[in-house]
């Protein structure tokens, strides 16, 4: 990693405290030295290279998260930026809070964070603003009542999770003529994709008299939990003919469970999924998954473009959406080479 001397770092920090709009040196470090405190969104100086902290949420090598991380790492390297990144160790928001604090303490130029929990991580975003570090929220949201858009962080860059749920519902309505008995496997409780994918889907089908959600529960975006939930719920609801899963990982568990139960995925029960992994796309071609709504993980280019735009004083939207598509048997073969 590239670095600078302690003297240079302290000089830069002192200059920032004088020059940054909305910042004031009205607090002290533990050693008694002056520390900048920003009362409003701090600007970002124009530089040839940046030292950017990345607080990724932890997943046990999920293909979406791995592709998302790789996109960030690759784009930073391409631009000659230093990405300060420590992988997490467990699916615990408090562990991610500690990593956020470590980035703040390291006085990086900017922070990119994908929050594990939108409520627990929100105070960390406020802490970064107070430390005069511009923050960019990626993938999952933070509680806007705690971390205020445009005041505590620059922008939220994500897929439109609610729209993903709506697109899944719209495909299913057209495919089934608005007649379906559905089990819904939700993502992590309290996560923005889990919450919004449920809202988008459920609210879109509520007007379809022939569509009913028989059961809906969290399987935590986890393949094993998707498998276990399917083994239990399908026998409890023998009339089920559709399983709507909030991500591909859970869908893989669904397929394994259905086959163990003597069901034929794609024939006895349609599997509706969200993500767009290579394995799920192949399963479309194999007839095991009916449709996958894409959740594009490749955020690196758009995130770093936004960071540079902000440094240059350009107007940055508070919300920036990645473009997602729908893949079924009609277009899966064309998408497969680009799937992650």
In a nutshell, what does this entry contain?
This protein has 340 residues and is an alpha/beta fold. Helices cover 39% and strands 20% of the residues.
Helices, strands, pairings?
Elements: H1 6-19, E1 23-28, E2 34-38, E3 51-55, H2 63-79, E4 82-85, H3 93-105, E5 110-113, H4 122-130, E6 135-138, E7 155-158, H5 161-176, E8 179-186, H6 192-205, E9 210-218, H7 223-236, E10 242-245, H8 248-260, E11 270-275, H9 278-285, E12 291-294, H10 300-311, E13 319-321, E14 326-327, H11 332-335
Summary keywords:
alpha/beta, Rossmann fold, 2 domains, 6-stranded parallel β-sheet, 6-stranded mixed β-sheet, 39% helix
Give a description of the structure:
With 340 residues, the chain is an alpha/beta fold. It folds into two domains: 48-158 and 299-323, Rossmann fold (3-Layer(aba) Sandwich); 161-295, Rossmann fold, CATH 3.40.50.2300. It is 39% helix and 20% strand. The chain is built from eleven helices and 14 strands. Strands 4-3-5-6-7-13 form a six-stranded parallel sheet, sandwiched between helices. A six-stranded mixed sheet has the order 9-8-10-11-12-14, sandwiched between helices. Helix 3 runs parallel beside helix 4 (122-130) and helix 5 packs parallel to helix 6 (192-205). The radius of gyration is 22 Å and the shape is elongated. The model is unreliable at 1-33 (pLDDT under 50).
CATH architecture of the largest domain: 3-Layer(aba) Sandwich
Largest sheet: 6 strands, parallel
Q: Looking at CATH, which topology of the largest domain would you report?
A: Rossmann fold
Report how far apart the termini are. 28 Å
Query: Which percent range describes the beta-strand content?
Result: 15-25%
Please, how many helices?
A: 11
CATH superfamily of the largest domain: Response regulator
Strand tally: 14
